[in-house]
Write a sequence for this structure.
């Protein structure tokens, strides 16, 4: 079985930076990570073993027992940040700069009188942080969610992991449902996310199935899986090599491999090695455009 790796896959600079900051923290037992630093079980286990306290994604507004709080790359609202500081907490901030860009775009539009439509998942921590500073907004995840907002100015931003196809479809629906309004569009998708989605598209027609590595609650990973399936490509999402089932690949000669932005390099290598073990010893490394035979 040949394994073709997507030309862009795995951790983005924002996640790498957040993880580097966490690993450099002295006395982790005195720090609470505000949510999941990355959507990856092995990394979360590593942080827990080091002694960090962690809040669940759904309980980030709970009381914190440590004096220091580490904000994840997903970010939080300025209001929530102020609440933590008012409670005497020292902030270790690893918010991704591209997430901060979404916050700033939404705030600027709101300050100019725009009603804000956020394209994304309402329950996702990134989106909760974005809307936490807004008074007039709506979150939509599908074109069918869009309605007439009875607003004369509508600003549209999106969660960084939104696929461009979905964002465009929702934007067109906003315009169609609000023909008399001034629509301001801020394309706030993350470049790393777009690169990984484009890399999956480049595999279409070249592979018979796709393995996607990433946490089940990682939105950007799920988007890669959805993208493949929407184009008729069978996709198997796993978090680690042990999750691979040999029977999945019994009829495939060429399989693609990609990974979400929270997936460590070492997990990608383990899954790749396991795939090779399940099939023949052929592997094609697209990232370096070099053919390699693994003995």
């Amino acid at each position: 079985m040949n394994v073709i790796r997507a030309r862009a896959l795995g951790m983005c600079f924002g996640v790498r930076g957040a993880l580097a900051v966490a690993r450099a923290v002295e006395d982790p037992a005195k720090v609470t990570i505000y949510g999941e630093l990355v959507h990856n079980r092995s990394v979360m286990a590593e942080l827990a073993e080091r002694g960090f306290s962690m809040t669940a994604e759904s309980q980030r507004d709970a009381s914190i027992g440590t004096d220091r709080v580490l904000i994840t790359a997903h970010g939080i609202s300025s209001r929530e940040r102020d609440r933590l500081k008012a409670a005497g907490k020292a902030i270790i901030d690893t918010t991704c700069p591209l997430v901060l860009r979404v916050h700033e775009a939404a705030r600027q539009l709101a300050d100019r009188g725009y009603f804000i439509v956020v394209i994304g998942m309402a329950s996702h921590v990134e989106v909760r942080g974005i809307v936490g500073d807004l008074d007039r907004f709506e979150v939509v995840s599908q074109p069918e969610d869009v309605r007439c907002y009875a607003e004369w100015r509508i600003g549209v931003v999106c969660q960084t992991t939104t696929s461009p196809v979905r964002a465009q479809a929702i934007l067109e629906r906003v315009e169609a449902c609000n023909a008399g309004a001034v629509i301001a569009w801020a394309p706030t998708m993350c470049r790393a996310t777009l690169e990984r989605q484009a890399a999956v598209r480049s595999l279409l027609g070249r592979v018979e199935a796709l393995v996607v590595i990433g946490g089940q609650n990682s939105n950007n990973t799920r988007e890669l899986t959805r993208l493949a399936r929407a184009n008729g490509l069978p996709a198997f999402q796993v978090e680690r090599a042990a999750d691979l089932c040999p029977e999945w690949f019994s009829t495939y000669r060429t399989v693609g491999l990609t990974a979400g932005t929270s997936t460590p390099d070492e997990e990608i290598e383990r899954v790749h090695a396991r795939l090779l073990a399940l099939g023949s010893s052929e592997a094609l490394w697209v990232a370096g455009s070099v053919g390699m035979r693994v003995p």
